[in-house]
Amino acid sequence: MSDALTEGLRPKEGYIVTLFLTVADVDRSAEFYARVLDGTVVRTGHPSIVQIANTWVNTWRAKGAEFMTEPKDHGVEIRCYMRDPDGYIIEVGQVKAG
Where are the domains of the chain? Predict the structure, then answer.
């Protein structure tokens, strides 16, 4: 990838998690992750790259996300599960403050 592209993907702090998914329709999946999970498509084509924003359940549900479980409080984090358009399970977790 070009330096300009990778520069835009570098976090100001923390780290990046990269997932590779085999999907039936790359454009549809990129649109889902951008629209429902407030992501930004930073590369189109094969492969597409979508940078996911840090938002949460109510925002995603309002945009069409279908959750398999309601958020469950596990003490140090809140966690739930949803599916993408190809049926992949997405585990969503949010660490709770101190």
Answer: 3-95
